[in-house]
Structure formats: structure tokens, C-alpha cells
Design goal:
heterodimer; A: alpha+beta; 9 helices; 36 strands; rod-shaped; B: 5-stranded parallel sheet; 10 helices; globular
């Protein structure tokens, strides 16, 4: 009955532990090879023990040599770093279905595991078999009981699930030793309880367990300075391991009422650690005020080798009590000193009996993330402090790791990029992407989370500098802007200069041309003008020397006139091609001189009405030419056709135009007739068209004829 | 007393033409050509000795041109009347010559009768003024003189003179002006003669003032 109850409770515990183990993350260990002291059948059939398939029918079976110890070695593909490993031994649809009865499990760190290797027992922390009842023996082996088979008479598939702790945190191979058990009612020893007394291990499976908790005190040995409380009326004494068994229900306190601060618990954390915070859980079922003024110390040597604590803190020095089931957290900065040590000593300064009473002590190691890799657009960035990110980067990849023990479920850390935002981003992905921020200086901060939802006090800070392309730098942009303004200014000045130069060149060319023309005209005139003048005077002299009625007088007069005409014409040409004469003043001079000469010979009065003072505006050569000839024609027409007594010539001028009006008081003519003829008015109109001017003719027999020329002035 | 012929000199660079002009002058009764020069420089050298009553000079001479010649002769030959000879009615050039001290101008070639008329006109007072010249004269007298170194009488035009210039600008011939103003042709000529003198004085004073300014 007792065994039954024991089995029941152990079953319950086993199940509980097993269920919690399901929540732990795992990484499979792959095996490259296996070896056995003896195996049945072909090697390929034996190697199915590590083929990754948990079913049979093949695996490791030592038949028919199943009445003597047999062993199996499995070699890892690569050395695996692990603290905790989950090992499953499958006896699943094998032939036969028997699981093995008793075994031992060990591990090695030898690079090439062999029978001669250094094999060390692993600590089997938790164990359960799916069907049978797995127990730990006094000798330290694991063994299933016969119980179930006796009741049902059936043999069953089974899986042995073990949580083992590796001695060195590293494993290269496992060794399973099958130990023969004494069969009931006989002296024979066999490897399995049931006939045919052999077994088939269809799969040896192992996985690295990464514990979720970051409490490094879990399952650590606890030493008590004095005896712990012995429950009245029972033989059960409290165990100091209750403080680190992970079960809040189990408690411990000293047996003696009045030991005071002489009593202490001491948790061996196994190595020197830097502590972030310590949780103390109070007993939950009843209200006892035994968790006041708890003194915590961290030191490196055990107390009996007197040493000074690196750090100490007193929880609730005010003597307050947290209440049943409460958890007090003491941070490293709450105490004095540097919170580093291997041993945590817990004592009480309270004078309440049975102090300190604790249900659980959790120690959380300082956890600081580390930057594993940083890359921009796939290119690794190796610089640090600051990490220099090249210009034009678009996406950044960050990979971090938290080297300390444990991997909490859910958010494992949080990060923020100061310079972009001070908001924290929670994450459990230690590898992530982000868009590259704009150029500038930033600090990436990472903070790890503990499994008790506390953020570690430490921060990883990585300084970043995102470079900008030179053309993104505001100074450069400013400089470039100024430079481009200067550039534009300089270019436009150059263009304007070029244009001015071209214009000047063109003007020069025109001037040179005009000079040429004038020079040619002068040369012509110099050559011919004098000759004609001489001819004229010769003829004049000859004419004067002849008597009045001499017949030769007439032709000589004609000769004079012709020669005189030529001379005048030549002189006129020289005058006309002189570019200095392209002014309105000169035009007026010419017209007046011409008109006076012409009309005095014809005995017609001429009257001038000119602007006073004389204007200084200039014409183009074309304008002067066309206007002069048109005016001359108008004057000719007036004198020839109109037969006037008076001819009036008026010039009006403004900023944009010049108007020339020729009026005669003659008989007039029909404008309609004149318009159609190509000579006379038609010609004048053509001339005015050529200079974008206009012509207006008004004629009436009574009043005479008025010819108006209008020519626009160029600026 | 036998009236002596009026002494005339010529400056004309074309040899043939100079010869013909000399002949033409010699055909005129009462006139005699006493010197004919090909260049202004030669004229400058020899004119002071020849001291003619009339000088006919081409406006366009090589080297020292006609206007320059007139300017330089003005001081040397105060009693010589100068007539410019020009092929064409270049108002500016003619006006400059008149300002420098010439008394009139002729377009060459000239008929004998024209030459005679011109020479007697000038000896009587002044050659006729074209409307363009008249306008230029008016324009010149608008600019105030910087110096008071001249006789007040000669520094400005009289009312009559202004009137005459105005009519001339408007294109009236001398006889028409005579009719309008009811004065004789001769009176007008006298007035024009005075106008020329004042013009000479005015230009010289301006030139001097300019020189003073520069120095």
C-alpha cells in the first residue's frame, strides 16, 4: 500500500515534471554513428536506432545475448554544447515489443567516442516512462517495475523520457548500458522482464534543452548552517533544497526558534556570477511573519572559511512583512557592494522565531545582450564604437545573442534606437531587420528580460553612425547651392558676354562693311568726281568762249549738265554710304537740301517744318535709304504731277516713330488710279513695307495732295 | 585809277580741275587768279605772301583738310574771304567750315555765272544760307558761351538776325524773306554777313574755352 502510494505520488510528480518539460525549447542532437557490444541482425537494421524514425521494427536488439550486460554507444555528428539534454529511448513497434529493464546512461566529451573513452554518468534530473513505472535505484541506475505487465499480461510499447544534466556542458557521445535484472522466481538475469527477455530499442533520441528560466539558483545545492524544522509527529525534516526546487509549496526554516542571525542558508550557485536581482518567495499557506529583515550576502568562499561578503542587502529592514505567498525582489543596486559571488548566504536579522522562513529563492544572473553581427544591405559592418554605416544603406540587419543561462518564453529582450525613438520594442527574435535611418548618430540599446518578467538592469549600447553621401551633407548642399548659384551667375554672365561679344562682333562686322563701302565710294568719288567736274568746267569754258548763237553751245551745256549730275551723284553716294549719316537729322538735312535745290530750279516755294531741337535718334541704313527714296519720289510726284505753288515738308517725331508729311497745293490726283500703278505710289508703298512702315495718301483737287510716311523707330 | 583785279587764290588737289578752275576765274572780269595750290600745307606757306582777297578752297584736301586750313588762315588772313568748294551739300562739313571762318560755299563744278555771283555775294556781305545751315546756326547760338572774352555785340544774335535765320530754316529764299520783312536784298545780305561773323566769333570763343577747360 505504501509502495502504491509512493508510486502514485511519484507518478504524479513525474507527470507534472514531464508536462512542464514539454514547454522547454529543444534542439535535436543528430547522431552520425552507433556501436553496440552486440546486436542482432544486419548492421543496417541496427543503425535504425539512430535513423531519426522512432518506429521499429528494427533497432538495437541484443538477442540472443540478452542474458548478459550489453552496451550501446551513439556518436554525435558534432560536439554539442548543452547543460540539459532530453533523452528518449523508444521501444516502439519493435520486434519484440519489450522495453529494457534496467540501464545506466553516461556521456563523454572525447572527440571520437569509443569503449575506451572517458564516460561519465549523467545526472538524470527527471524521468518518466510512458507506460511503465521508471524508478531510480539505490545504485544510481534506472529501472522499470514489473507491475503493469503482471496485471494485464500484455507486453507494451514504451518510451523512457529522461531529462539529464551533462557534467561538462558538452557532449560528443552517449553510452547506454543495459543491465540484466534478476527475473522473479528464478536465478536468471535478463535484460528485459518478459520473455523472450530481450528488447528492441527502436530509436535513441536526444535533444538539447534550453531552459526557459533564467533563475540560476534552480536546483542548486543549498546548505543550512543548522538543522531544519522537523514536522511535528512525522519523521520528515524539511530539506534545504526546498529553497531551490522550483516548487513554491515546499518551505524551509530552522528548527531552533532562537538562533537569530547565527543561522543561515547558503546556496552554491556553482560558479562566480554577477547577480541582477534575487527573488524571495514567502510561504503561501499560512501567515507567518518570518520573512522580515532578511540579510542577503554574496561571497566566494563558504562561511567556515571566513571571508568578507562582496555584497550584502537587507530585505525589509523596516521590519515589514510581505504577506503570505508574496515575492520580494532585491536588486543588485539595492545592496551595497558589487553583487558578484558564488555563494548566496541568507540569514535573518529579525527576532521572530523560526526566521528566516522561505518557500523559494531565485537568483537571476546579470544578463547583457551582445551584438553578434551588424550588416547593411547584406554587407557586414565590422567597425564598432561607433559602427559606421555607409551612405545609401537601405536595410540594416542586427543579430544579437544573450550568452547567459536560460531562454525565457515570449519576449526575451527589448531594443530601441535612440536618435530615432526612445520607445522600446519587445522582441523574442534575436535576429531582425530594420530600415536604415537617415544620416546621423544613434545608439542602439538592447535589454534582456528575465523569466520572472523583470528587465535586467544592464543595457547593451552600440553606437552607430550612419554616414551620408557627401551630397546629402547639409554643408555640402549649402556649398553646392551657393556654388551652383555662382555657377549659374558665372555661366549667364559668360553667355551674356558672349552674346554681347557676338553682337559687338556683328556690329563690328557691319561697321567694317560700312567702312569698306564708304571707302570704296570715296575712292570712286575721288577718282571719278574730279574727272567729271573737270569735264564740266572744260565744257563750260568752251561754251563761254563761243558766241551766243553758236550751235555748239547747246550740246556743251548738256555736257556740263551731265557731268555735273554725275559729280553730284557721286558725292551723294559718298554721303549716303557714310554710316555716320544714319540719323534723322541727316535725313532732314538731305531732304531740305534736295527740296530747295529742286524746287528753286522749278520755281516752287518750299516750306519746312522741322522739330526743334533736331532729334538725335538713329535709323538703320535700310530705313534711311528707303525713306529718303520714297520721300524723293513723293517730292518728284508733287512737282511733276501736282504743279503746285508750294510744297510743304514736315517731320514729326516721337519715341517710337517718325512721320514725314509732304503736302503740295497742286491739282491733286485720283488715289485709286495711283494705287494700282507700279510706279509712283506703288513703289513708295513697297519701300515703306520694307521698313515696316506705312504710307497714306490723301488727294483732293481743291486742297492738293498730302503724302504721309510713317516709319517705326527701333530702340 | 585803273581798278586792280581782285586777287583770287585756289586750293584744289586734282591737277586737271585746278587748272580749269584757274582758267575759269581768269575769264571773270575784274578777277585774277594769283595762286593755285595743290595742298593745304602749300597754301598755308604761300598764302600770307600772296594775300588774296578771295580764297577758293576744296573742303576735302589730302593732309591738312579744308576746314583746318580755314581755321589756321583766319588769324593770318583777316581780310580774305573764303569760299569752300565741295562736291556735295554736306551740311555738317559746310557748317564747320563756315564756323571756322569761311564765308560761303559752292558746289563744284560751277558755271561761270554761278561763280561770279557767288564771289560778288561774298564780297558784299555773305553768301546765301541754305535752310539746313540756317538751322545749324540757330542750334549753335542756343548753347551759351562760357567766356565773356568777346564783344557783347557779337556774342548773341539780334532780333532781326534771328528772324532771318528762322525764315531761312523754314525754306524761304532770300528774295522771299525780303518780301516778307519788307527790306532789301542787300540789307539781308548784310545781316547774313554779320551772322557769319558772329558765327566765326562764337566758334572761336568756344574752341578757346574748350582749350582752357582742358588745360
Amino acid at each position: 500500500m505504501e509502495t502504491h502510494r509512493k508510486q502514485q505520488s511519484s507518478l504524479r510528480i513525474a507527470f507534472l515534471l514531464f508536462v512542464t518539460s514539454l514547454l522547454l525549447p529543444a534542439e535535436p542532437i543528430r547522431f552520425s554513428s552507433a556501436e553496440a557490444t552486440y546486436y542482432h541482425g544486419k548492421k543496417e537494421e541496427f543503425l535504425k536506432v539512430i535513423d531519426g524514425l522512432i518506429h521499429g521494427p528494427m533497432g538495437w536488439s541484443p538477442a540472443p545475448k540478452s542474458y548478459e550486460p550489453q552496451s550501446l554507444i551513439v556518436r554525435c555528428q558534432a560536439p554539442m554544447k548543452a547543460e540539459e539534454v532530453s533523452i528518449e529511448l523508444y521501444f516502439f513497434c519493435g520486434r519484440p515489443l519489450n522495453p529494457l529493464a534496467e540501464f545506466r546512461l553516461s556521456a563523454t566529451t572525447d572527440p571520437q567516442p569509443s569503449w575506451q573513452s572517458n564516460w561519465q554518468s549523467v545526472t538524470i534530473e527527471r524521468f518518466a516512462a510512458d507506460v511503465h513505472s521508471l524508478q531510480r535505484t539505490a545504485e544510481g541506475t534506472m529501472r522499470i517495475e514489473l507491475f503493469l505487465a503482471e496485471v494485464t499480461g500484455n507486453q507494451a510499447d514504451d518510451v523512457y523520457r529522461l531529462k539529464v544534466r551533462l557534467p561538462h556542458g558538452l557532449v560528443t557521445g552517449f553510452r547506454l548500458d543495459a543491465i540484466p535484472v534478476e527475473l522473479p522466481g528464478s536465478a536468471t538475469k535478463a535484460l528485459s522482464w518478459w520473455p523472450p527477455h530481450d528488447f528492441t530499442l527502436t530509436e535513441f533520441q536526444a535533444e538539447i534543452l534550453v531552459p526557459e528560466t533564467t533563475n540560476i539558483a534552480l536546483h542548486r545545492p543549498v546548505h543550512a548552517s543548522h538543522d531544519l524544522y522537523l514536522t511535528l509527529g512525522s519523521n520528515t525534516r524539511q530539506k534545504s533544497s526546498s529553497l531551490t526546487d522550483g516548487i513554491a509549496a515546499t518551505i524551509a526554516h530552522p528548527d531552533d526558534l532562537f538562533l537569530g542571525d547565527a543561522f543561515y542558508f547558503e546556496i552554491d550557485l556553482g560558479r562566480e556570477v554577477e547577480v541582477d536581482h534575487i527573488n524571495l518567495r514567502n510561504r503561501a499557506d499560512e501567515k507567518f511573519e518570518r520573512m522580515r529583515k532578511i540579510k542577503l550576502e554574496l561571497l566566494n568562499k563558504t562561511n567556515h572559511q571566513s571571508s568578507v561578503a562582496h555584497w550584502f542587502a537587507i530585505n525589509r529592514p523596516d521590519g515589514s512583512d510581505p504577506g503570505p505567498g508574496a515575492i520580494d525582489t532585491i536588486h543588485a543596486q539595492d545592496g551595497r557592494g558589487k553583487a558578484i559571488g558564488r555563494f548566496l548566504k541568507i540569514s535573518s536579522q529579525s527576532d521572530i522565531a523560526y526566521s528566516p522562513q522561505l518557500a523559494e529563492v531565485e537568483v537571476y544572473e546579470r544578463r547583457t545582450p551582445q551584438l553578434v553581427a551588424l550588416s547593411s544591405d547584406g554587407n557586414p559592418i565590422r567597425s564598432r564604437s561607433p559602427a559606421v554605416i555607409p551612405p545609401g544603406a537601405r536595410r540594416l540587419s542586427i543579430e544579437a545573442m544573450i550568452p547567459q543561462y536560460g531562454m525565457p518564453r515570449g519576449d526575451r529582450f527589448r531594443w530601441r534606437l535612440r536618435g530615432v525613438s526612445d520607445d522600446w520594442q519587445n522582441s523574442n527574435q534575436l535576429k531582425w531587420d530594420m530600415p536604415c535611418p537617415a544620416s546621423g548618430n544613434y545608439v542602439l540599446e538592447l535589454q534582456a528580460r528575465h523569466s520572472d518578467d523583470q528587465w535586467d538592469a544592464s543595457l547593451l549600447q552600440v553606437r552607430w553612425q550612419v554616414q551620408q553621401h557627401f551630397w546629402q551633407d547639409q554643408r555640402y548642399q549649402g556649398g553646392f547651392f551657393i556654388a551652383s548659384i555662382i555657377g549659374v551667375y558665372a555661366i549667364s554672365r559668360r553667355l551674356i558676354k558672349n552674346r554681347s561679344r557676338r553682337q559687338i562682333d556683328a556690329a563690328n562686322a557691319r561697321a567694317v562693311l560700312a567702312e569698306e563701302r564708304a571707302r570704296i565710294a570715296r575712292d570712286l568719288h575721288d577718282d571719278l568726281g574730279a574727272n567729271f567736274a573737270e569735264i564740266a568746267i572744260i565744257s563750260e569754258l568752251a561754251r563761254e568762249s563761243l558766241p551766243e548763237n553758236h550751235p555748239a553751245r547747246s550740246p556743251l551745256a548738256t555736257i556740263y549738265e551731265r557731268a555735273e549730275n554725275n559729280t553730284r551723284r557721286l558725292g551723294e553716294i559718298v554721303w549716303a554710304v557714310n554710316p555716320a549719316h544714319d540719323t534723322i537729322e541727316h535725313l532732314i538735312q538731305y531732304l531740305c537740301n534736295f527740296a530747295q535745290d529742286y524746287m528753286s530750279a522749278a520755281n516752287i516755294r518750299c516750306r519746312f517744318d522741322m522739330p526743334d531741337p533736331l532729334p538725335q535718334e538713329t535709323f538703320t541704313a535700310a530705313q534711311r535709304y528707303q525713306l529718303l527714296l520714297a520721300a524723293k519720289e513723293a517730292i518728284h510726284n508733287a512737282v511733276r504731277h501736282g504743279k503746285p505753288q508750294t510744297v510743304q515738308i514736315k517731320v514729326e517725331i516721337s519715341d517710337d516713330w517718325v512721320r514725314l508729311i509732304i503736302h503740295d497745293d497742286g491739282i491733286g490726283f485720283d488715289p485709286a488710279l495711283a494705287r494700282t500703278s507700279t510706279r509712283g505710289c506703288g513703289n513708295m508703298r513697297l519701300r515703306m513695307d520694307a521698313i515696316h512702315g506705312s504710307l497714306m495718301i490723301d488727294s483732293h483737287p481743291a486742297t492738293g495732295t498730302t503724302v504721309q510716311f510713317y516709319a517705326p523707330l527701333q530702340k | 585809277m585803273k581798278p586792280t583785279n581782285i586777287r583770287v587764290c585756289l586750293v584744289e588737289d586734282d591737277d586737271g580741275l585746278r587748272q580749269r578752275l584757274r582758267e575759269l576765274v581768269d575769264t571773270l572780269p575784274g578777277y585774277q587768279c594769283v595762286g593755285a595750290y595743290a595742298t593745304g600745307e602749300q597754301a598755308l606757306q604761300e598764302l600770307p605772301q600772296a594775300c588774296p582777297r578771295l580764297l577758293l578752297t576744296d573742303i576735302n584736301l589730302p593732309g591738312l583738310n579744308g576746314v583746318e586750313l580755314v581755321t589756321q588762315l583766319r588769324d593770318v588772313l583777316r581780310d580774305t574771304e573764303i569760299i569752300m568748294l565741295t562736291v556735295y551739300d554736306d551740311t555738317e562739313l559746310i557748317f564747320r567750315s563756315l564756323s571756322a571762318g569761311a564765308g560761303g560755299y559752292l558746289l563744284k563744278p560751277v558755271k561761270r555765272a554761278q561763280l561770279l555771283e557767288a564771289m560778288s555775294d561774298i564780297l558784299q556781305g555773305g553768301a546765301p544760307m541754305s535752310s539746313s545751315i540756317a538751322r545749324r546756326v540757330v542750334q549753335t547760338f542756343r548753347k551759351p558761351l562760357q567766356t565773356s572774352a568777346i564783344d557783347g555785340d557779337l556774342s548773341t544774335l539780334s532780333t532781326r538776325e534771328r528772324e532771318i535765320l528762322d525764315y531761312l530754316s523754314r525754306g524761304l529764299l532770300l528774295k522771299e524773306i525780303a518780301m516778307e520783312l519788307n527790306i532789301s536784298h542787300a540789307t539781308i545780305q548784310t545781316h547774313i554777313g554779320r551772322i557769319y561773323k558772329k558765327l566765326h566769333v562764337h566758334s572761336r570763343a568756344q574752341a578757346v574755352a574748350k582749350l582752357n577747360q582742358r588745360s
